[in-house]
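Weekly puzzle thread! Below is a chain. First person to post its structure in token form gets bragging rights.
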Amino acid sequence: MLWVDKYRPKTLDQVIVHQDIALNLKKLVTEQDCPHLLFYGPSGSGKKTLIMGLLRQVFGPGAEKVKVENRTWKIDAGSRTIDLELTTLSSANHVELSPSDVGFQDRYIVQEIIKEMAKNRPIDTKGKRGYKVLVLNEVDKLSREAQHSLRRTMEKYSSSCRLILCCNSSSKVIEAIRSRCLNVRINAPTEEQIVKVLEFIGKKEGLQLPSGFAARIAEKSNRSLRRAILSFETCRVQQYPFTSNQAIPPMDWEEYVSEIASDIMKEQSPKRYINLREVNGIRRVLLTPTNYNLDSILRILLSTTRLFQVRGKLYELLTNCIPPEIVLKRLLYELLKRLDAELKHEICHWAAYYEHRMRLGQKAIFHLEAFVAKFMSIYKGFLITTFG
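Winning reply:
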């Protein structure tokens, strides 16, 4: 078992970081009926840990007895029937799911599936709680239609259902939902708090930490506790006993993004030389009497461009479940390290522009590729102007 899961606090009393918030949550569920809650904060700050501790506080140990289900629902959408498959994590008292996993069809999840779950009270309430809790992840990624449907669901089934919403940014959640929830801001832990957690894990594992080693891991983690613990375990696997100058390995995907940035900086022109095999392929296509050879030639020519190569690498990151917003942010960071100061403001402007466009659209790869193409155009123009 990974240390992230092994040492995750099971109750609010075991929380090391955000102890003040844990104490307030305990008071909330003991003094009055629990309202709808909206937890928001950066990734790796501990939102899910506090949510699971809260469920344990409300429903007892039964909240930990969960099962994973891959369910398929048939949704009647007017003139057609839609099959939606979604993974849920559920116990007798709560259900956890991510409606945004189905993309632009998320409104059907909210309209039908959540209504179905909200209508059913828990089987074994023992006279304590007469409601079921629905935990919805990534509500900031829901479409506007889905968010408005969620608002109506909150009003209609408030007597039998409580919603715990989780997201990274509350600004992308409509005001109608935020005003109906108790908003709980979860700040990223400080480096001192991360060091405290790492020293706690090291003590439990019987490890000797050199002076300043935990602090260096915390500094590299960008204040993400999850990332710090994963890096700590990686260092343990790679080398133990630890040394004072031991390198903290970066994430594999970060190294991959750094390679992409280097490729972009090396060549901005979309063209390169076509090799002999590709020339022979074009010749064979031209000798065929069909009318679609132009498409085949275009595919061969596109495969020879630097932009096409970068697109393939970006697509590989997306298929490995790296969020496109994180890819764009990291790519911008790597490019800015290699850029002249006079270009940085313009590149940041276009990164923000394409991030906004990416949130409005459905195909993230299009907007990532558009940003790379825009960067190539700007940087190539800068080189021509400067060096001729």
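Puzzle host: Confirmed. Bonus trivia for everyone else. The first strand starts at residue 37 and ends at 40.
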